[in-house]
Amino acid sequence: MTTILETRPGTGFTGPVHRPGDPGYDARRAAFRPTVDSRPELIVEAADETDVALAVRTARERGLDLAVQGTGHGTLVPSRGLLLRTGLLDAVTIDPHRGTARVGAGTRWGAVVAAAAPYGLAPVSGTSFDVGVAGYTFGGGLSWRSRRCGYAADSLVRVRAATADGDVVVASRDEHPDLFWAFRGGGGGYAVATELEFRLYPTGGLFGGRAYYPIERAAAVLAFYAGWAPSQPDELTTTVALGRGPSELGPGRRVVIVRAVGRGPDAERALGELCRVAGPALGGGFGAITYDDIPGIGDTRPMRFERVRDVPDGLVDLMITAAGPDAHPEAAAELRFWGGALATPPGDGGAIGHRDVPFSVILSGPPAHDADLSGHATGGAFLNFLYDTTRTHTAFSAAGHARLRRVKRAYDPENVFATGHTVTPAERP
Question: Are 392 and 423 in contact (CB under 8 A)?
């Protein structure tokens, strides 16, 4: 039976609390990545905002390591201490007149997409609708609609959060603007979010899909894409990948894969240019889609990711060597152009770094080519795709990282929120 921790006489948590040995403990401590196998001393499933604040105070007063987890995709589980799960905070409210959603910090994107769809609206969600809203947004949040709508963090309007003192505050452009700035792409290690509000966008007229082309066209398509993509409409997002095609094309056949999501006739015409260079398609295709169709277009596997400023012949050759016709059966590579609204932050656009870097390259498979890819990379990371917490600082500019450390000093000077992607508090002047 689930036990309740009494933190002081007459008080406790509304939500369930689990200790090692309790039924349900192992299921609650599990993370999205199966290699994570930690055993926290205590797991608190917050039922409301008061539970969140109480958990923070409990961890601080008892000297327990504290980690916060919404869906398990992001923050590591502490090997000891207290794991605060916010998955029960999953209420979703859509305001179609303002074009906004207000959601609990444990909400997954699928619930938001379903609630917004009847109004012809959708959020800036990622490839998988199973991912949690909070971690995705605080890490930046890259969507198939981001060239038009920006990062998910750019659409944030307001965040309610419990600080390291256990106080609940509202962060927005008008209240605690420094904390609001940090939440927009700087990770979540400054306070524990309990509720987020963000803008939604129209979904009418979407098209998209994926098409497969002969692998022999890889060099021509990649070289064309590098010069073509920067001048295309912001309504069009595309990638060019090399990998194994579907079984109907033949066992293990390697192909060029063009993926796209767009809106409007200009975007459709632009995609046609890329497809003509790729040649007659072997299979797949593009057509009208709903927002619900987007998860089937992308690839959700974890891959090595680097940002690059340009695509020289040497990088094209590397991608073909790593994932072309003679590559390992599981190898894959992808070239993506970012740009558009991703490169133009709105106002004081948050902590996201490297907006001026236009391309990313992903390699998957044997790590033999990692060093070669690093030679083309800027070294700047994107927080959502960064698993090495010792490299957190590489997701920001030097000035942005320094500012985040000042925010950390203001809201969490004792580094209570020290797990996952976080920064150390700046020293006092």
Answer: yes
